[in-house]
Amino acid sequence: MAKDKNLFVCQSCGAAYPKWQGRCDACGEWNTLTEETPVQRGPGPAAKAGGGRRVEFVGLKGHSAPPPRIPTGIAELDRVLGGGLVAASAILVGGDPGIGKSTILLQAAARVASAGRRVLYVSGEEAVEQVRLRAARLGLTDSPMALAAATSLRDIIASLEQESDAALVVIDSIQTVWLDALDSAPGTVAQVRACAAELIRLAKARGFAIVLVGHVTKEGTLAGPRVLEHMVDATLYFEGDRGHQFRILRAVKNRFGATDEIGVFEMTGTGLVEVANPSALFLAERRGNVSGSAVFAGIEGTRPVLVEVQALLSPSSGGSPRRQVVGWDSGRLSMLMAVLESRCGLSLGQNDVYLNIAGGLRIAEPAADLAVAAALVSAATDRPTDPDRVYFGEVGLSGEVRQVAQAEARLREAAKLGFGRATLPRRVARGGKAPSAPDGIALTETGHMADLVAVFAEQTVKPRRAGA
Ligand code: TYD
Ligand code: MG
C-alpha cells in the first residue's frame, strides 16, 4: 500500500499543497507552508458504497426551547455571548498575547464555579503556581474551580471523561495542546485542528461549554487555525492595545446570539472591570478647542457608543504622502479624501494624513464617514469642530450624505452625554411618522458634504502644499 504522502499546509489559512512553495496561493501569505502528515478524516469511500441510515426530514414548524444558558456573572461578557454560555457549545476567544484573555476567563470561570457549577481550567501556558498567583491578585482564591496544568490532549480527554457534571471547561490555550499521534509540532494547523475537534466533540457529547483560547498572530489572524472559526459556535475577539487600559471584547461569530456586539472592559490592578458607560470612557480624555477632532455617534451591536475621531495633517516631505489609520479602514479614508477633493474642492493632496479612533476602538460602520470628514476638514482648515456636537452619516461617491440606521438611538446617547447639537443625514418620515429627536438636541441635517465644508470655510487656512 502506498504510504500517505505528506502535505504542505499553510499555517495561516489551512490550504494544502503537494509540494512546498514560498507563497500560499489561497491567502497570499509568504513562508507559511509547513510539512504535515495528513489527518484521516471524513467517512471515506465507505459512505459511497451504501449501508447508510435514512435521515429524517422535518418541517420548519415545531417547538424548540431556547438553549440553556450559564450566566458568567460578568454582564459585559454575557452580553457578547448573547446572554451567557450555552451548554454543549464551543467558544473561541482570540486576541493578541497579553491582552487579557487568561484574566477574563479566570474571572469568569471563578464566578461560574462560585455559583455552584463544576468548572475546570486547563492551563497549557502557565504553571499552576502562576495561575494561583494571578487568582490571588484577582481575589478569586475562594472560588471552588478546579485548575490543572496540562498540554497532552490524551491526558486532558482522559481527565474530562471522568467528569460527569462539568459545566464549563477552559483550555488556555489551544495552541499549546498537542496530540502525540501527529508528527507536527504543537500550534500547527494539523495539531490545532485535531485537538480542537476532539475537545469540541467531547463537549457536545458531555454537554459542557468549552472555551478555547487562541493567540492571534501580528497579521490579525488566529495563528494557524482560521479553520477553528468554522468548528466553534462562537468566536470572540479581544481587541485594544496594551498601552491603553480599555479592552473590547467583540463577537465576530455567534450561532446563539447577535454578532458585532461588544463588551467594554478596563484593565486595572485587580483584573478586568466592566465598563457600563463606554461613551463616557472614550470621551474622557477629549480636549475641546483643538482642530482635527470630531465626535462620532456610533452603534456597536445593540448599543450606541460615542467616540472621538482624530485627524492630523502635516506637509509631506516628498515622495508619496503617508496615510496612517488606526481603528478605521484605510480604503475608506482614501475614498473620503477623494470625495473631499473632487466634490468639495478641498485640497489635501500633498499632506501626510493620520487618522485615529481614540481609546483603541475599531470602527467598521460606514456611518462614521461624516465624523471622519468633519475631523479631516477641521484639520485641513485648522478650525476646531463645535465641541458640543456629534456627527454621523454615510458619504457616497458624489458627496451625498446618506441615511444610516438607528439615528434615534445615536441621538439619545448624545443627549445623555450632554451634547446639544448633531450633524446628521436628512431624515425622512417613515410610515407616515415624522422622525423624532430627543429633547435638548438641535439637529443640522446635511444632504451633501459641501454643506459640511462650508461651515468651516469662512476662516479657511489652506494647508501648505509641499512642492507646490
Ligand atoms: P493575560 O490575561 O495574561 O493575557 P493573555 O492571556 O491574553 O495573554 O493578561 C496579562 C496582562 O494583563 C499583563 O500585561 C498584566 C495585565 N494585568 C493587569 O494589569 N491587572 C491584572 O489584575 C492582571 C491579572 C493582569
Ligand atoms: Mg494567557
Structure description:
By secondary structure, this protein is an alpha/beta fold. It folds into 3 domains: 1-38; 69-275, Rossmann fold, CATH 3.40.50; 281-427 and 437-457, Ribosomal Protein S5, domain 2 (2-Layer Sandwich). It is 25% helix and 25% strand. The chain is built from 11 helices and 23 strands. The chain has helices at 75-81, 101-114, 128-137, 153-161, 189-206, 227-231, 278-283, 330-344, 369-381, 407-416, 449-457; strands at residues 7-10, 16-17, 33-36, 69-70, 85-86, 90-95, 118-123, 146-149, 166-172, 209-215, 234-239, 246-254, 262-268, 271-274, 293-300, 303-315, 323-326, 351-357, 389-391, 394-395, 401-402, 421-425, 442-446. Strand 1 and strand 2 form a beta hairpin. Helix 8 crosses helix 9 (369-381). It is globular, with a radius of gyration of 26 Å. The N and C termini lie far apart (74 Å). Mean pLDDT is 87; it is low at 460-468. Bound molecules: thymidine-5'-diphosphate and magnesium ion (MG). The site of thymidine-5'-diphosphate has 15 residues, from helix 2 and helix 3. Plays a role in repairing double-strand DNA breaks, probably involving stabilizing or processing branched DNA or blocked replication forks. Belongs to the RecA family. RadA subfamily. Keywords: ATP-binding, DNA damage, DNA repair, DNA-binding, Hydrolase, Metal-binding, Nucleotide-binding, Stress response, Zinc, Zinc-finger.
